[in-house]
């Protein structure tokens, strides 16, 4: 059973502890739960670091308008302004394009053809919800957190697979109830996903990775310069060793006849938008740590659309097909993102001159034969 926790992230309507969004993110991170945050543009501008943390923790970011004005109270021009301004701020602050995910404030306008037409014009579609525990009411009674948790869990059970839960980032009761919500749903077999992992989340089958094709760099070698440029922007430090030219030279190894490395490229049409690589012994770690995923990178303007996840899973599939397991990776700041994908943290280490987290995942060979221990 998949459950999508969706969190409207905005300024609160009642008195509440100011750091509740931080506490909420901590709870999700500690439990490796991925959620969808519909962020109000004005809130993102006031809290840029928290907006970036939402991104860095691997959550999906959507647009929740700039001022939180009910959509049907606005003219078409006014609606365009609040959606576009929020889009601009969210993108500027986080580097994530929140399209096509939009939630109408209070759900107002979700069924209004004029509102939906403006959203389509701007590249958005409204995302509703199936379960509403009314955490925003925050009655502050001693049993209110338990009531919110019970309402959420029972609502998800009644709905079944694909339930979208409406929560908010600011109420005290949400922070108090969230651990019980996660633990009880997990005990019932729930898997927590973003709305981008639900077919029909937008009232149709379109998802952000629709039209994405994934192939070997050997099949699209013209993408190599673009990938090298991304790597230099993402990890360059001004030294020749991390220049675009250096990365291009390293990528040349992926064009040879050796079994590894294998560089996969995600394409929308002919345009490269994401990449990930399966390598042999990327860093010196343990004697038997042979197979590594690395160079996971999404083009800057395409982040937040599930492309990184798609490329990582594609590399895992290649390893599965070849019987290469266990897999390893190291990441300085994306531990939560990979935990959502089933990776387990081994330890903190030093790599490339800085602190990093080493993680692992066992993938089963397709035919059930023992995993290989070399790249031959």
Short description:
The chain has 376 residues and is an alpha/beta fold. It is 34% helix and 21% strand. The protein folds into two domains: 2-197, Alpha-Beta Barrel (TIM Barrel); 212-361, Gcn5-related N-acetyltransferase (GNAT) (Aminopeptidase), CATH 3.40.630.
Question: Could you explain how this protein is built, in words?
Answer:
A hairpin with a 2-residue loop joins strand 13 (344-351) and strand 14. The chain has 2 domains: 2-197, Glycoside hydrolase/deacetylase (TIM Barrel, Alpha-Beta Barrel); 212-361, Gcn5-related N-acetyltransferase (GNAT) (Aminopeptidase). The chain is globular and about 60 Å long. It is built from 11 helices and 14 strands. It has 376 residues and is an alpha/beta fold.
List the helices and strands and how they pair.
Layout: E1 2-9, H1 20-30, E2 36-39, H2 41-46, H3 48-56, E3 60-63, H4 76-94, E4 101-102, H5 113-121, E5 125-126, H6 144-159, E6 163-168, H7 172-187, E7 191-192, E8 212-216, H8 224-235, H9 244-251, E9 262-268, E10 271-280, E11 291-298, H10 307-322, E12 327-331, H11 335-340, E13 344-351, E14 354-361
Parallel strand pairs: 1-2, 1-6, 1-7, 2-3, 4-5, 11-12
Antiparallel strand pairs: 8-9, 9-10, 10-11, 12-14, 13-14
Give the CATH superfamily of the largest domain. Glycoside hydrolase/deacetylase
CATH architecture descriptor name of the largest domain: Alpha-Beta Barrel
Poorly predicted tracts of residues = 200-208, 366-376
Give the neighbour order of strands across the main sheet: 8-9-10-11-12-14-13
Shape: globular
The number of distinct structural domains comes to: 2
CATH topology-level name of the largest domain: TIM Barrel
Distance between the termini: 40 Å
Order of helices and strands: EHEHHEHEHEHEHEEHHEEEHEHEE
Largest sheet: 7 strands, mixed
